[in-house]
Amino acid sequence: MNTRHIICLLAAAAVLSGPARAQLQPGDETVGPGATATDVIPPWQMEFENLSLEARRDYGSILGDAARLFGQKRIFEALNRIADADEIFPDNPVALNLKGACYVEFRDFEKAREVFSLAFDKQKVVLSDIENLPDEKRYARMASVADILFNIAEMDFVTNNWQRAHDQFADLLKNINPAKEQMIRLIELKLLIAKIKLGRMEEARTLAAKYDYLDDSPFYYYAKAALAYHEGDVETAERARATARRVFQKPGMLAAWEDTMIEADYLKSFYGGDLAVDPTEVPVPE
Questions:
Q1: How far apart are CA 134 and CA 224, in angstroms?
Q2: Which of 29, 237, 92, 27 is nearest to 83 (CA)?
Q3: Per-residue model confidence as pLDDT tens for the chain (286 residues)
Q4: End-to-end Cα, the chain, rounded Å
Q5: What secondary structure letter does DSSP report for 280?
Q6: Do 83 and 285 meet the contact criterion of CB atoms below 8 Å apart?
Q7: How far apart are CA 254 and CA 80, in angstroms?
Q8: CA distances (Å), 84 to each of 64, 65, 113, 235, 236, in order?
Q9: Range 38-62 burial, b when 16+ CB lie within 10 A, else e
Q10: Are 269 and 262 in contact (CB under 8 A)?
Q11: Which residues contact 281 (CB under 8 A, 6 or more apart)?
Q12: Where are the alpha helices (DSSP H) in 72-180?
């Protein structure tokens, strides 16, 4: 699986190394690093903000290196830098999310799921009573954890755990800011495919008809392709994908959508097999 669409908060290091803030005290509502401003501050953010200014700057610089290395597909080196960051402050959800993405690159999905789940455990307090909040606060809280929840659901999607992927993507859609249109459309495609795999065809067709060709995302074309592949109509599916390529010509825009077709086994992956890397073979500094 290509991880171009895994949302890894690669820009978080810039936040971490940004302007200094006063150290947090209990009850202070200043927002910690790597998260969207909310009215709830997870304990890890409080702990991080109470590090010295020098430690926070060093941490941000190191995590920035890790993000840069990950973007260059230098995954072993990225893991090394994450380990260096952990020596200053262990188990920051931003770093954990990036570490999980590294394991995805190795196709070790179970290890990735474990790390993403740990990241969520560190951040999940922001979801407390979220269903009772007004939209603005609900969207702000979800923004600080949506990428992690997406990654966890994605691990079920790529390992063909369709029911769990379906339920997690459906839950995620309930609280995402409607302004995040491209992310929502991609999640909806994955939800549609999960419905197809579960035999919930009426629901899948209803979801596929939600948008038309005038939509600003490729959803219409890939939803049509997914249904066609399922029905064995390869010609229609290929034509829909070809039309998407003509309409959406910006480099990289269709990568996530094509990857989703591969993950659903509609297209052949260039990997040639699901070979996971033993996590004990990943060189992490002691």
A1: 35
A2: 92
A3: 454 445 444 334 333 433 333 333 333 333 334 444 567 889 999 999 999 999 999 999 999 999 999 999 999 999 999 999 999 999 899 999 999 999 999 999 999 999 999 999 999 999 988 888 898 889 988 988 999 999 999 999 999 999 999 999 999 999 899 999 999 999 999 999 999 999 999 999 999 999 999 999 999 999 999 999 999 999 999 999 999 999 999 888 999 999 999 999 999 764 433 333 333 333 333 3
A4: 29
A5: G
A6: yes
A7: 31
A8: 12, 10, 22, 51, 50
A9: bebbbebbbebbebeeeebebbbeb
A10: yes
A11: none
A12: 75-88, 93-105, 109-123, 135-143, 146-158, 162-175
- Give the global pTM: 0.81
CA–CA distance, 122 with 95 (Å, rounded to integer): 11
Count other Cβ atoms within 10 Å, centred on residue 105.
Answer: 19
**How many angstroms separate the CA atoms of 54 and 48, rounded?**
12
Geometric angle at alpha carbon 183, from 244 and 104, rounded to 5°: 95
Q: Which of 229, 230, 221 is nearest to 198 (CA)?
A: 230
Query: How many Cβ atoms are within 10 Å of 278's Cβ, its own excluded?
Result: 9
Element (H, E) at 55: helix 53-71
How far is residue 154's CA from residue 41's CA, in Å, rounded to a whole number? 26
Tokens coding 220: 């219409």
Those residues whose C-beta lies under 8 Å from the C-beta of residue 218, and which sit 6 or more positions away, are: 185, 244, 247, 248, 253, 254, 257
Name, in order, each residue with C-beta under 8 angstroms of 285's C-beta and a sequence gap of 6 or more.
80, 83, 84
Of 67, 73, 68, 127, give the one whose Cα is nearest residue 92.
67
